[in-house]
C-alpha cells in the first residue's frame, strides 16, 4: 500500500494538468488586479472616466470652445449623439420584439389551419405548439422587460449627461454673462 501511495504521489507531482481557459482568464484578471493595486489612485482607469464630450471638442484649441455659441453647439451635438445611440438601442430591442411577435402570429396561423384526423398527430401538434408558444412568450416577456428597462435607463442617462455637461468646466463659457 505504501509503495502504491509513493508511486501515485510521484506520478501526480510529475504530471501537470493543462490550465483550462477559465483558469487562465482568472489568473489574468488576478494579475491585472495586482497591477492596479500597485498604482496610485489617480492612475486607475474606471468606467466613470469616459469623456463623452471630448469628440465634440477636438476642433477647438485646448479642447475648449472660444465662445458661447460654440459651447452650446458642442453640448447639443454631444446630447444628440447620446440620444441617437439610445434610440438605436431601443430600435434594436423593438425590432427583435416585433420579429418574435410575428413568429408567434405565423405559427398560430399555421396551427389554426392545420386539420388533423389522427388523434395522436393532433396531440403531438398541440404539444409542439404549446411548447413553441411558451418559449416565444418567455422571450417576449424578456424583450418587453428589456425595452421598459432601457426606456427608464435612457431617461436617467440623458439627464445624467445633461447635468455633467452643465457642470463641465470646458463648457463654462456658456454660463458667462456678457
Task: Report on this structure.
The longest helix is centred in the C-terminal third of the chain and has 49 residues. The N and C termini lie far apart (94 Å). It contains four helices and no strands. With 178 residues, the protein is mostly helical.
What is the topology?
Elements: H1 2-14, H2 21-38, H3 68-113, H4 119-167
Helix pairs in contact: 3-4
Query: Mind describing the biggest β-sheet?
Result: none
Q: CA-to-CA gap between the ends?
A: 94 Å
Question: What gross morphology would you assign?
Answer: flat
The proportion of residues in beta strands is under 5%
Question: What key phrases describe this protein's structure?
Answer:
178 residues; mainly alpha; 4 helices; 71% helix
Quickly describe the structure.
The protein is an all-alpha fold and 178 residues long. Helix content is 71%, strand content 0%.
